[in-house]
Amino acid sequence: AQTVTQSQPEMSVQEAETVTLSCTYDTSESDYYLFWYKQPPSRQMILVIRQEAYKQQNATENRFSVNFQKAAKSFSLKISDSQLGDAAMYFCAYRINFGNEKLTFGTGTRLTIIP
Amino acid sequence: SQTIHQWPATLVQPVGSPLSLECTVEGTSNPNLYWYRQAAGRGLQLLFYSVGIGQISSEVPQNLSASRPQDRQFILSSKKLLLSDSGFYLCAWSEGGEQYFGPGTRLTVT
């Protein structure tokens, strides 16, 4: 069974600084997707970034980028120039690239931005 | 554009009472639909998913059930709520490999 592990329950970063959130996963599949979701206090889940396993290039969305290490099964999220609005729970998620598109989530990392 | 609605937003129910949470999606057809539960301070646990009308798959055995009476409607039900059913329930739909979530329902069982 696939598992997703986020070993940092809480992280904090000074405003305008850079922070990296860690995620590791376990799978025997070779074709899959990885995602980072953000859940602010409103509790709405918002997709931040996605990475296809077959792509070697790391995904980037504005201030958000990932470091995808397929062999190590590692998928970290880097947030640059942190802003107060980045404060939220961040969830790493995985799904295989066929079938019913079910997501498996990690337990989340709570990110605090220090003004 | 596609939108997803959930209601009610908040619900307080006594133990043993029935439950019905509704999720509807607009702007798409034949979506895959999902029900997740998030316990306090925890990640999301997939409860049910549906790939079409009347097609429901259960991920976790429990006293909850799901139904999909229409293409874009997904309902989560229970005949008798337990204290352990308290949590935040999220509905989601998928397209193009990505899942999009509704605003959620906070359920408190007292």
What do these coordinates show?
The complex is a heterodimer of chains A (115) and B (110). With 115 residues, chain A is an all-beta fold. Chain A is built from no helices and twelve strands. In chain A, strands 2, 5, 6, 10, 11 and 12 form a six-stranded mixed beta sheet that branches. In chain A, strands 3-9-8-7 form a four-stranded antiparallel beta sheet, with no helix packed on it. In chain A, a hairpin with a 2-residue loop joins strand 7 and strand 8. The model of chain A has no long low-confidence stretch (mean pLDDT 93). Chain B is built from no helices and eleven strands. In chain B, strands 2, 4, 5, 6, 9, 10 and 11 form a seven-stranded mixed beta sheet that branches. Chain B is globular and about 40 Å long. The interface between A and B is medium-sized, with 22 and 23 residues.
List the keywords.
heterodimer; A: 115 residues; mainly beta; six-stranded mixed beta sheet; four-stranded antiparallel beta sheet; 12 strands; 0% helix; globular; B: 110 residues; seven-stranded mixed beta sheet
